TrEMBL record:
InterPro entries: FA_desaturase_dom, Fatty_acid_desaturase. It comes from Ascidiaceihabitans donghaensis. One of its GO terms (biological process) is lipid biosynthetic process. This is Fatty acid desaturase domain-containing protein. The chain crosses the membrane at residues 189-214. Keywords: Membrane, Transmembrane, Transmembrane helix. The keyword Membrane applies. GO terms for cellular component: membrane. Residues 49-290 form the Fatty acid desaturase domain. GO terms for molecular function: oxidoreductase activity, acting on paired donors, with oxidation of a pair of donors resulting in the reduction of molecular oxygen to two molecules of water.
Length: 314
């Protein structure tokens, strides 16, 4: 049973779970608008500061595309199913080298067995709490592109090694390290490269490299790790839906650069996974009104969530 049904009635859940084609379209347009808007700001005001900000903002919106693909995997991005499937796969997933249909099967298993031995994501959180030095090394690898290059090379090698072997390809799609990655590499490379090419055609030849490839290899990897840590690191390895996942309160800077599209309300998402992301703040309020706030594992900020995972520890 969906955990939230034990605490919220059907009449309370129904309006929260209502999907919207209009809101889905707005979220997708907003995400891509921010991406190309950041490039446009640099084009009008070309300097080091606007360039760095563009890389950071675009990397955060690449995470935004991953989040919207995640929404579509739960059939929550659009009310119209064919729009949901198309947008999740081709407008959100493939441009960041991800494959929604493979991810959906993997991710629903995570929801079914959250923080148990059968959770395919357990390997991502089991290493925490970790030392400050260990987390720092991970962040440095992310921000210098080492993680991105390593994962991209692994993705390419997996595709080459498994080409033509459908059973082995399906098995690879259950690998936690490849959860957001596409094993059907050619289609994803075409979409990923098309975005870079479009940026270069709109500006200088190097725009695609600096404003699409570089954010993907650096800031996107960093915020993806921060998000993973905040959601399940240093939580209970149990079936308690209030303690095996964390909601992190985020200010506007964190929402802009680390936690787009209400991804910080992760406990609420696990409570009822088909509630659209834009409804999660309302669901958080509904749970508080039920007097459940004292049971919920929350962090007041992303810095606090990282501290629980070991950031700042000797």
């Amino acid at each position: 049973m969906t955990p939230g049904k034990a605490y919220l009635s059907s009449d309370e859940i129904r309006p929260l779970a209502a999907r919207s084609d209009g809101m889905g379209l707005w979220l997708v347009l907003h995400c891509w608008g921010v991406i190309f808007g950041a490039v446009a700001v640099f084009a009008v005001f070309p300097n080091v500061l606007t360039g760095i900000l563009a890389v950071i903002i675009i990397g955060s919106r690449q995470l935004g595309l991953a989040i919207l693909m995640h929404e579509a995997a739960h059939v929550a991005l659009f009310k119209t199913r064919r729009w949901n499937e198309f947008a999740g796969e081709w407008i959100c997933g493939r441009p960041i080298m991800a494959e929604m249909f493979a991810y959906r099967h993997y991710h629903l298993t995570h929801h079914r067995f959250t923080q148990t031995d059968k959770d395919p994501d357990l390997a991502l959180s089991a290493k925490f709490p970790a030392s400050h030095a260990s987390i720092k090394r991970k962040f440095i690898r992310d921000l210098t592109g080492q993680t991105g290059v390593k994962l991209l090379m692994a993705q390419i090698m997996t595709h080459v090694r498994l080409a033509g072997d459908d059973e082995a390809m399906d098995a690879a799609k259950t690998d936690a390290a490849q959860a957001f990655k596409s094993t059907d590499l050619v289609k994803s490379l075409v979409m990923f490269s098309s975005v870079a090419l479009l940026m270069s055609l709109a500006g200088a030849w190097w725009y695609g490299l600096v404003f699409w490839v570089l954010p993907y290899l650096t800031w996107f990897q960093f915020v993806l790790r921060v998000r993973n840590i905040a959601e399940h690191a240093a939580t209970e390895t149990s079936d308690d839906p209030f303690q095996n996942v964390r909601t992190t309160h985020a200010n506007w800077i964190e929402r802009a650069l680390v936690a787009p599209y209400w991804v910080n309300y992760h406990l609420e998402h696990h409570m009822i996974m088909h509630v659209p992301c834009w409804q999660l703040p309302k669901m958080h309020t509904a749970l508080l009104r039920k007097g459940l706030g004292h049971r919920m594992k929350t962090a007041p900020s992303y810095a606090a969530a990282l501290a629980e995972a070991g950031w700042g520890r000797t």
